[in-house]
Amino acid sequence: xxxxxxxxxxxxxxxxxxxxxxxxxxxxxxxxxxxxxxxxxxxxxxxxxxxxxxxxxxxxxxxxxxxxxxxxxxxxxxxxxxxxxxxxxxxxxxxxxxxxxxxxxxxxxxxxxxxxxxxxxxxxxxxxxxxxxxxxxxxxxxxxxxxxxxxxxxxxxxxxxxxxxxxxxxxxxxxxxxxxxxxxxxxxxxxxxxxxxxxxxxxxxxxxxxxxxxxxxxxxxxxxxxxxxxxxxxxxxxxxxxxxxxxxxxxxxxxxxxxxxxxx
Length: 264
What we know:
Strand 3 (194-198) and strand 4 form a beta hairpin. Helix 3 packs antiparallel against helix 6 and helix 6 (141-163) crosses helix 7 (171-188). The chain is α+β, with helices and mostly antiparallel strands. The chain contains nine helices and six strands. The protein has helices at 14-32, 37-40, 51-69, 92-105, 108-122, 141-163, 171-188, 225-232, 238-243, and strands spanning 131-134, 137-140, 194-198, 202-206, 220-223, 247-250. The longest helix has 23 residues, at 141-163.
């Protein structure tokens, strides 16, 4: 894509994102406090993780904000949005190792209480443009908080399914997660021949081909936010979503199978 046609990065309201992260984390924390030993021991559906390790990962993902804020600021930005989505696969193995150690270090309620106390104390006064060093490289705090909505929302969905829960999704957190993963698709497959609609939160154009300018686009994909995040992160496949009528696709360029998952 030429510089003149490069997509403009979506902006995110940092105050709304802060609130979304804290609210979704609180939703998960409330559920974790009443999980039984049987529920904690269930498979999480993510490799060999148990539910205990899944919820440790949720806590660790938010704790990473506090840990980064306690360290000196890096000199330059190394990772931005939506490019962050393409960095996570490379660090999946060390994250999994750290999660197992973290999960064994304390009971879930203690992990969540500690994490909640630290981020509540550190986050409100931190500037959105403050640079922080995280596992994938230096990021602006405001951008990293956007990535935390992805971690929280995607893994809340995992936790609901694995433990038989019904943890609610904060609307702002779900919206932010949906938009970032949609933008990552558009970054991965730049173009304007296909319109991907995820109402009520996102619409992006992607895929090389004839540019649509007026009327109904010839290639349209539409799905709901939860199906989208499952597609974008490999929790379900394109074929499964089509077969269950969770996604509709029309037009010769509306097959996204080769582009999914966006992140894994």
